[in-house]
Amino acid sequence: MNLKFILIKAIDIYIFLIILRAIFSWFRLNQQNMFFQLYLFLIKLTEPVLGKLRDLQLRILPNLSIDFSPLLALLILNFLQNIVLTSNL
User: Rounded to whole angstroms, how far apart are CA atoms 68 and 70?
Assistant: First the structure.
């Protein structure tokens, strides 16, 4: 396994986690729901990135009521993945 493969797979996994968190956010989960702990785990893994992007969005567009941080994160991760794919690692 080379570094390029590891980076691509790590980005793939993080993209999957962000998408899964976005899907979970559409449902009302309470502590009795079996997916609640998984959702909390997804928040812990993705919030460091999504929180920073959400803060950036609030500074640029303060009156926007839709959270575009997952979409922005996916675009950035896709861009990084393309850079890794075209690099000579």
Answer: 6
* pTM, 2 dp: 0.89
Range of the domain at 50: 3-86
Cα separation, 67 vs 24, whole angstroms: 15
- The tens place of each residue's pLDDT in the chain, 89 residues long, gives 799 999 999 999 999 999 999 999 999 888 888 899 999 999 999 999 999 999 999 999 999 889 999 999 999 999 999 999 998 87
Of 38, 5, 2, nearest to 23 by C-alpha is 38
Hey, what's the torsion of the CAs at 21, 22, 23, 29, to 10 degrees? 60
- Measured CA to CA, the distance from residue 87 to residue 31 in angstroms comes to 45
How many domains does one find in the chain?
1
Q: Which residues, other chains included, contact 89 with Cβ-Cβ below 8 Å and sequence gap of 6+? A: 2, 3, 4, 7
